[in-house]
């Protein structure tokens, strides 16, 4: 797990000066999906079915996230199996589900010291990409910034 998170940390450094909000779908497909695809969704404690916008019922959010990584047109229609909801809620973008899976694991990761300092859109500096990603998981509107002092 530590080696994998280190590889993900290295991949994110490529995007150090890219605005996440503008490129989240492409980052999710390339970097977040690279992580999510390695997860064994069957053994996760989350056993709550979710319905995809493709009409397929998935075992959990992790399984839906993997489906999204293979086909970006698949999003989360609603919690629960397909066909069980009488109203049509607004679907949740698949890239957000992918990031949720990534963030759930990142919260248990100890970030290494060192690395390139990252400027956040909130004007704060973060010690490295890992620390920035942890902050971004808590505040999804946080993006890379240029006005840190």
Concise description?
The chain has helices at residues 2-13, 20-36, 61-70, 94-106, 129-138, and strands at 50-52, 57-58, 76-79, 118-119, 125-126. With 149 residues, the protein is mostly helical.
Q: Can you walk me through this structure?
A:
This protein is mainly α and 149 residues long. It has a single domain (2-114), classed as Wheat Germ Agglutinin (Isolectin 2), domain 1. Helix content is 42%, strand content 9%. It contains 5 helices and 5 strands, in the order ααββαβαββα. The strands form 2 sheets. The protein has a 3-stranded antiparallel β-sheet. A two-stranded antiparallel sheet has the order 4-5. The chain is elongated and about 50 Å long. The model is unreliable at 1-28 (pLDDT under 50).
Order of helices and strands: HHEEHEHEEH
β-strand number: 5
Query: What is the fold named in CATH at topology level?
Result: Wheat Germ Agglutinin (Isolectin 2), domain 1
> Structural class of the helix and strand makeup?
mainly alpha
Uncertain parts: 1-28
Nearest-integer average pLDDT = 79
Give the strand order, joined by hyphens, for the main sheet: 2-1-3
- How would you describe the shape? elongated
Second-tier CATH architecture: 2-Layer Sandwich
Nearest-angstrom radius of gyration?
16 Å
Number of domains: 1
N- to C-terminal distance? 34 Å
Report the helical percentage. 40-55%
CATH classification, class level:
Alpha Beta
Number of alpha- plus pi-helical segments: 5
Helices and strands in order:
Layout: H1 2-13, H2 20-36, E1 50-52, E2 57-58, H3 61-70, E3 76-79, H4 94-106, E4 118-119, E5 125-126, H5 129-138
Antiparallel strand pairs: 1-2, 1-3, 4-5
Helix pairs in contact: 1-2, 2-3, 2-4, 3-4, 4-5
Keywords: Disulfide bond, Protease inhibitor, Serine protease inhibitor, Signal
GO biological process, one term: cell differentiation
Domain Kazal-like: 27-84
């Amino acid at each position: 797990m530590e080696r994998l998170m280190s590889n993900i940390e290295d991949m994110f450094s490529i995007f150090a000066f890219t605005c996440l909000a503008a490129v989240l779908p492409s980052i999710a497909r390339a970097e977040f999906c690279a992580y999510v695809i390695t997860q064994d969704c069957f053994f996760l404690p989350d056993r709550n079915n979710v319905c995809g916008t493709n009409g397929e019922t998935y075992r959990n959010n992790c399984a839906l996230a993997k489906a999204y990584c293979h086909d970006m047109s698949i999003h989360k229609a609603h919690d629960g199996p397909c066909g069980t909801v009488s109203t049509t809620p607004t679907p949740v973008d698949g890239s957000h589900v992918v990031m949720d899976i990534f963030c759930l694991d990142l919260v248990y990761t100890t970030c290494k010291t060192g690395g390139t300092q990252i400027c956040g859109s909130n004007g704060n500096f973060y010690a490295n990409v890992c620390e920035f990603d942890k902050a971004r998981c808590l505040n999804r509107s946080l993006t890379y910034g240029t006005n840190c002092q």
